[in-house]
Design brief:
This protein is of the alpha/beta class. The protein has a domain at 43-111. The chain has helices at 22-40, 59-69, 99-111, and strands at 47-51, 75-79, 92-95. A 3-stranded parallel beta sheet has the order 1-2-3, covered by helices on one side.
């Protein structure tokens, strides 16, 4: 509770008439500026790791694929044991296991000589 009122998460729900978009709009603006800066620097190798986003409300899933597709050598890594499909990413790797085991495998492969 904040100021004697019930606190709420800063997420947009369907039919949410009390949503205050200022914070999200600022975050989106900063995210867009960062992506544009990468493009201006001619960055081509970007890896987007998408953990657990599903298809019921595909906003995060679509954003991950869109960002990966913006870069010539962009790669999407999707980790989701139930919905690992990577469409519409051009270059993608899908893991149909839980995130902890996959992240541990990635860590081990990076530490191996």
């Amino acid at each position: 509770m904040a100021n004697g009122k019930l606190a709420r998460p800063n997420i947009l729900m369907f039919g949410d008439y009390y949503w205050i978009a200022d914070r999200t709009e600022k975050q989106y603006s900063l995210f867009s500026a960062w992506l544009n800066a990468l493009k201006k620097q001619s960055v081509q190798n970007v890896v987007v790791v998408d953990i657990g986003s599903g298809t019921a409300v595909p906003t995060a899933r679509n954003t991950a694929a869109t960002v990966a597709n913006k870069f010539e050598k962009g790669i999407l890594i999707r980790i989701n044991p139930r919905e690992p499909q990577t469409y519409p990413a051009k270059r993608a790797i899908a893991f149909d296991e839980g995130a902890l085991s996959i992240l541990r495998d990635i860590e081990c492969s990076m530490l191996s000589p």
